[in-house]
Design goal:
The complex is a heterodimer of chains A (about 325) and B (about 180). Chain A is an alpha+beta fold. Chain A contains eleven helices and seven strands. Chain A folds into two domains: about 50 residues, no CATH class; about 240 residues, MucB/RseB, C-terminal domain (Phosphorylase Kinase, domain 1), CATH 3.30.200. Chain B is globular, with a radius of gyration of 17 Å. Classes of the chains: A alpha+beta (about 325), B mainly alpha (about 180).
Chain lengths: ~325, ~180
C-alpha cells in the first residue's frame, strides 16, 4: 500500500476499533512511516492530557442538588402507579405496606432480642433520621460502582481507623464481617451537614455473591456485592432506634448508639442492595461488635416505610 | 433500581457536561436538566442497555437544545457574549500545569461541537464507536471520521495553528511530549 493511510484508520487503531487485518496493516505502516507514528503518539498523548484535565471532576463530591433531584422524584412512584390506581386502592396499598412493615418489624425485634416497642413511623411521616440516612444512601450509590477509587484509604493501611476516628470525632471501628461473607475494602471521609462522616466499604468474599450492578458502566458485570457503613456524630435529637428502610433497590438499617463502648454517641447506617435478611445479619454483626463490652442502650424500633417504593419492584429485571 | 443506577452515573455525567460547557455551574445545570429528563422518560430505558450511554445521549440532546435557545436569544441581543467564546477563561479543572490546561481547553473549545463531543466520548468516556454512535444517534462511520478529524484539528491547534497539515510537518517528538506530560 503506497498511498498515505487514511487518518481515520490510524485514529481507529488507537481506539482499538479495527479488525485484526486492518490492525496488522496499520502497524506495518507505522513501522515504516515514523512521521505518522509520531502523529499517532501525539494523539495518544492528547487523549491522556484530556483525561488528566477532566478526571478530577469524578472525585468531586456530587452536589446535593443533583442527588436530591433523583431521590426527590422516584420515577416509579410518579407516572404509572398513581395514574392507574383509584384513590382507595392506593390507600389500601399503603395500608398493606404498613401492616407488612409492622410484621417485618416485629420479626426483626425478635431476632435482635431487644425490648419490644411500637413502630412509630408511618408511611406518611418522614423518619427522624431522614436527612443523614439519605446522605448515607447517596454516598453508597455514588461510590459503590467505582472500580478505580471505591475508597480513599485501603483497608490494609493501619491508620484508617485512627484517621477516621480523629476526623469524625466519633470512634470508628473497623468491623470484621468475614463471618457474614464480607471483607473490608477501605474507607473514606465525607462531608455531612454537621461535620465529617465516615464511610466504610465492604465487599463480598464469595465469588457467587454478586450485587446487581448492571447499571454502572464503571462496574464490571462480575463485581462482587458491596455494602457501606456510614458513621457520624448524631444530632442531639436523634433517637436510638433501630430502623429499616428500603429505597428502591437499596436496603438501609440505621440506628444510633447513645453510649458506645469507646465513647460518645454514634449514628450508623448500613446500606446495601441485598435481601433484607442478609443485610440484617450484617447489621447484627456490626451491632454486636460495636457493643463489646455490651452497651446499656436498648430500645428497638423498626419501620416498614415502603409506600411508594414498593412499585419499584415492577421495573426491576 | 433505576434511581440508584442514575445516581451512580452522576459523576461521569458531570465530567461529560464539564467538557462540553466548561463552566462548572452551567455544566451542573446541564446535568440537572439531563437527570430530570431521564427521570421523566425512565420507562423508555431498556435495562439491558448501558445507562451511562443512555444518560449521555440525553445530556447531549439537552445541550443541543440549550445551544439552540442560546442562538435564538443571541440573535435578539447581538452583543451577548457566547458562552463558548473563550472556554479557557473559566476552565475549572484542577491541574498542576495551568498553562497546558488553558491551551487544551481553548483548543478544545475551538473544535466544532460535533467533533469535540465525539472525541470526548471516545477518549474521556472510553466509549466504543458503537456506543458513541448510539449516544449521539449517528452512524459508526461518522464517529470514526469525526474522531480522526477532531484529533488532527486539536493537534494543529495545540501546535499553534495551520489545521489539517500534520502530514510532513509533524513537530519533533520531544517538543510534542513536553507539552502534554
Amino acid at each position: 500500500m503506497n498511498a498515505a493511510l487514511d487518518d481515520a484508520l490510524l485514529s481507529a487503531w488507537i481506539d482499538g476499533e479495527l479488525t485484526p487485518e486492518q490492525r496488522a496493516e496499520v502497524e506495518a505502516w507505522l513501522r515504516e512511516h515514523p512521521d505518522d507514528a509520531a502523529r499517532v503518539r501525539a494523539w495518544g498523548a492528547d487523549a491522556r492530557a484530556l483525561r488528566a484535565a477532566l478526571d478530577g471532576v469524578l472525585d468531586e463530591p456530587v452536589p446535593a442538588a443533583l442527588a436530591q433531584t433523583v431521590w426527590r422524584r422516584p420515577p416509579t412512584a410518579s407516572a404509572r402507579f398513581i395514574e392507574g390506581s383509584s384513590t382507595w386502592r392506593r390507600a389500601a396499598a399503603v395500608l398493606a405496606v404498613f401492616v407488612l412493615g409492622g410484621a417485618v418489624g416485629a420479626a426483626l425485634m425478635g431476632r435482635l432480642q431487644r425490648p419490644p416497642s411500637v413502630a412509630t413511623t408511618t408511611a406518611t411521616t418522614p423518619a427522624p433520621g431522614g436527612a443523614w440516612v439519605q446522605r448515607a444512601a447517596v454516598a453508597h450509590s455514588v461510590y459503590v460502582p467505582e472500580v478505580r477509587h471505591p475508597v480513599e484509604v485501603r483497608a490494609q493501611e493501619e491508620h484508617l481507623s485512627r484517621w477516621l476516628t480523629r476526623r469524625c470525632n466519633v470512634p470508628v471501628k473497623l468491623f470484621d464481617l468475614r463471618a457474614q461473607g464480607f471483607e473490608l475494602v477501605g474507607g473514606r471521609l465525607l462531608p455531612d451537614a454537621s461535620g465529617p462522616s465516615a464511610q466504610l466499604m465492604y465487599q463480598a468474599i464469595a465469588p457467587g455473591v454478586t450485587g446487581d450492578v448492571s447499571g454502572g458502566r464503571a462496574a464490571t458485570a462480575a463485581q462482587p456485592a458491596r455494602v457501606t457503613v456510614y458513621l457520624r456524630k448524631p444530632d442531639d435529637a436523634t433517637p436510638a432506634a433501630f430502623r429499616y428502610e428500603r429505597r428502591g433497590e437499596l436496603g438501609l438499617f440505621y440506628w444510633v448508639e447513645g453510649k458506645s463502648a469507646s465513647g460518645g454517641p454514634i449514628g450508623y447506617a448500613l446500606v446495601g442492595a441485598l435481601p433484607r435478611e442478609q443485610l440484617l445479619a450484617l447489621a447484627e454483626a456490626i451491632y454486636r461488635q460495636e457493643a463489646e463490652p455490651p452497651s446499656s442502650q436498648g430500645t428497638g424500633k423498626e419501620t416498614g416505610k415502603e409506600a411508594g417504593k414498593e412499585v419499584g419492584k415492577e421495573t426491576r429485571k | 433500581m433505576f434511581c440508584e443506577q442514575l445516581l451512580g452515573v452522576i459523576p461521569r455525567l458531570r465530567r461529560y457536561a464539564r467538557s462540553l460547557v466548561f463552566d462548572r455551574h452551567a455544566a451542573d445545570d446541564l446535568v440537572q436538566t439531563a437527570l430530570e429528563r431521564a427521570l421523566a422518560h425512565w420507562h423508555q430505558f431498556d435495562q439491558r442497555r448501558d445507562i451511562l450511554v443512555w444518560a449521555i445521549g440525553i445530556a447531549h440532546n439537552a445541550h443541543l437544545d440549550e445551544r439552540r435557545r442560546h442562538a435564538r436569544s443571541a440573535r435578539v441581543e447581538p452583543d451577548a457574549p457566547g458562552r463558548d467564546d473563550d472556554p479557557g477563561a473559566n476552565h475549572p479543572a484542577v491541574s498542576p500545569d495551568i498553562g497546558l490546561q488553558l491551551d487544551l481547553a481553548r483548543a478544545l473549545g475551538r473544535l466544532p461541537l460535533e467533533q469535540r463531543e465525539t472525541l470526548l466520548l471516545v477518549t474521556l468516556e472510553q466509549f466504543s464507536y458503537a456506543e458513541c454512535a448510539e449516544a449521539l444517534r449517528i452512524p459508526i462511520g461518522t464517529v470514526m471520521s469525526r474522531v480522526s478529524r477532531a484529533r488532527v484539528a486539536l493537534r494543529a491547534l495545540l501546535d499553534g495553528g495551520s489545521a489539517g497539515d500534520g502530514q510532513g510537518a509533524a513537530p519533533p517528538q520531544g517538543a510534542t511530549l513536553r507539552r502534554v506530560v
